[in-house]
Design the sequence.
């Protein structure tokens, strides 16, 4: 299992066995490189920990623990001592990203813990032989051959482009949900799950200037914690608002000289390099950018697909892999701006939700147009815009609609229930849902797997739980502001960023970390699509309706460009299957 995850920790490894409990660890050394070997065992109690992540306020927690002797200068020992003193209540004191396991031999219990937002991954499998857990699904697959595909999880993948927690693509293997810990009784084998943190929006009335001052101070304090490191570090700088703001705050905290990394493609329509370069010049960073032409061959794409351990269809994984590769040449840790859109309403989907909620007249108009236009494309567009605010949100998140999923799965359609909270306005409800699922299961999964493939740690200061709780306490108009010339997303966050950048820089349309996917699928990837999907599709023919897959491929190449995301999802499914069936199995001893 450790061998299957060697890329996550090239700086060291260790094993601890205590009767029926075994821990293994692969180390990426960021804090106290010389002294932080794992698994770590407390000499007095026998408590053992294997730990992935960073608790950024470990200095403050160590101070709270008192002046007892510490054998290391790393946060791992602080986490173990805190658990020894406070048990699960210690989790409320931690600020950071983490997935860890602690064995308490006195109680004969193992505790598996995942951070509040799901920045760090944690999978576990339950079988008659016992419980197995790891940071990546590939490590579990390495010692449990013959895992069966979960058809319910496959159907959910077709909807979202990822498998949402707590499911994985395999039966009896699960993701531990963010903000939860699992208690395993070693003697009986019983497993109990506990939620220790949940996002509970509680709107308050606050003056805009007071809120601005509070957010500015909170961001400054958070960045100071997140740049604690004993190794070289930098920042991803895409040129968007979030990464530019994080880089600006870093430069301010460190007095300049921040190393920044950007990539672009030779297709200028999909390259933000001019904006990243502009931001780097304004902030006077040590900027490194590259224009990349990735190798669009099956071996490279299969490697990427295999890193996720299960099907994953977010095509921005490819540029994330590439920018991580570039950064990892110079540093071992970077900060990124992930989370700003979900917390401060930056996605266009939130605007669509707000408009659909407010404008019942327009919705009625679209319903009328849909009936008149019938089955034409105009009718389909009108129908899609005539639904409720919830359908507007789902339409922008779903890869395959209900009708196509029924055909592909032959009617197997489990789903995540849509259960809006009447206490929340629609935009806030959609933001909360994204923070609980789309963010950890798509965005953070992508960033973790693609960066750790290059042994690069990515820290996400905007997702510190104090900033999350602050953002969800704001009135909606401080996140999504209605102004005379339209709407401004991330309103308050942009006001903070005005200290570093002019409004013309901050107010340009959101770009996104995209790739020229349609161009590639119609060009260099077309032979691969035909090889894996248009003929006999190995995975699809075994688990889906292969004829429906081929129909979708034909429609895309016959003039249905809206199928582009679906083609990528189906291709990713086949690439993952090829990677998982050819991967050498590393046996644990």
Sequence:
């Amino acid at each position: 299992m450790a061998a299957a995850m060697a890329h996550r920790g090239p700086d060291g490894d260790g094993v601890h066995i205590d009767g029926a409990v075994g821990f293994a660890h692969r180390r990426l050394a960021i804090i106290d490189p010389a002294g932080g070997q794992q698994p770590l065992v407390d000499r007095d109690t026998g408590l053992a920990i294997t730990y992935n992540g960073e608790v950024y306020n470990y200095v403050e927690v160590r101070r709270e623990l008192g002046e007892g002797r510490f054998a290391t200068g790393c946060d791992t020992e602080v986490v173990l001592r805190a658990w020894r003193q406070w048990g699960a209540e210690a989790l409320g004191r931690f600020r950071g990203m983490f997935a860890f396991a602690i064995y308490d031999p006195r109680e004969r219990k193992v505790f598996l813990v995942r951070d509040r937002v799901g920045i760090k991954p944690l999978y576990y499998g339950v079988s008659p032989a016992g419980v197995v857990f790891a940071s990546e699904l590939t490590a579990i697959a390495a010692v449990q051959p013959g895992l069966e595909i979960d058809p319910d999880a496959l159907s959910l993948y077709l909807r979202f482009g990822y498998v949402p927690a707590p499911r994985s693509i395999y039966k009896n293997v699960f993701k531990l949900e963010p903000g939860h810990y699992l208690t395993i009784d070693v003697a009986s084998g019983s497993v109990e799950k506990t939620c220790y943190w949940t996002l509970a929006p509680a709107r308050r009335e606050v003056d805009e200037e007071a809120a601005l001052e509070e957010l500015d101070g909170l961001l400054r304090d958070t960045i100071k914690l997140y740049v604690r490191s004993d190794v070289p570090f930098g920042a991803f700088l895409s040129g968007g608002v979030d990464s530019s703001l994080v880089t600006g705050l870093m430069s301010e905290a460190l007095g300049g000289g921040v190393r920044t990394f950007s990539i672009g493609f030779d297709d200028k329509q999909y390259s933000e390099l001019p904006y990243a370069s502009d931001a780097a010049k304004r902030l006077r960073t040590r900027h490194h950018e590259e224009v990349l032409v990735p190798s669009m061959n099956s071996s490279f794409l299969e490697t990427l697909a295999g890193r996720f351990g299960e099907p994953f269809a977010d095509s921005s994984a490819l540029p994330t892999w590439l920018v991580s590769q570039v950064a990892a040449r110079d540093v071992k840790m970077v900060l990124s701006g992930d989370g700003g859109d979900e917390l401060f309403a930056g996605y266009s989907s939130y605007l669509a939700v707000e408009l659909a909620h407010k404008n019942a007249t327009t919705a009625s108009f679209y319903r009328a147009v849909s009936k008149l236009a019938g089955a034409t494309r105009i009718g389909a567009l009108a129908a899609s815009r005539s639904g409720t605010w919830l359908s507007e949100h789902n339409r922008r998140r779903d890869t395959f609609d209900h009708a196509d999923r029924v055909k592909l799965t032959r009617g197997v359609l489990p789903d995540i229930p849509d259960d809006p909270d009447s206490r929340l306005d629609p935009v806030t409800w959609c933001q909360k849902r994204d923070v609980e699922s789309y963010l950890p299961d798509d965005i953070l999964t992508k960033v973790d797997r693609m960066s750790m493939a290059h042994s690069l740690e990515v820290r996400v200061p905007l997702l510190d739980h104090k900033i999350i709780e602050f953002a969800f306490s704001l009135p909606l108009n401080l996140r999504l502001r209605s102004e005379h010339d339209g709407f401004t997303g991330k309103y308050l966050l942009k006001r903070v960023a005005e200290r570093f950048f002019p409004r013309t820089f901050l107010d340009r349309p959101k770009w996104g970390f995209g790739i020229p996917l349609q161009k590639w699928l119609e060009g260099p990837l077309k032979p691969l699509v035909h090889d894996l999907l248009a003929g006999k599709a190995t995975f699809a023919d075994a688990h889906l309706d292969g004829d429906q897959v081929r129909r979708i491929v034909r429609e895309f190449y016959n003039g249905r460009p809206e199928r582009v995301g679906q083609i990528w999802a189906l291709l990713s499914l086949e690439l993952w299957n090829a990677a998982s069936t050819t991967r050498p199995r590393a046996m644990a001893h």
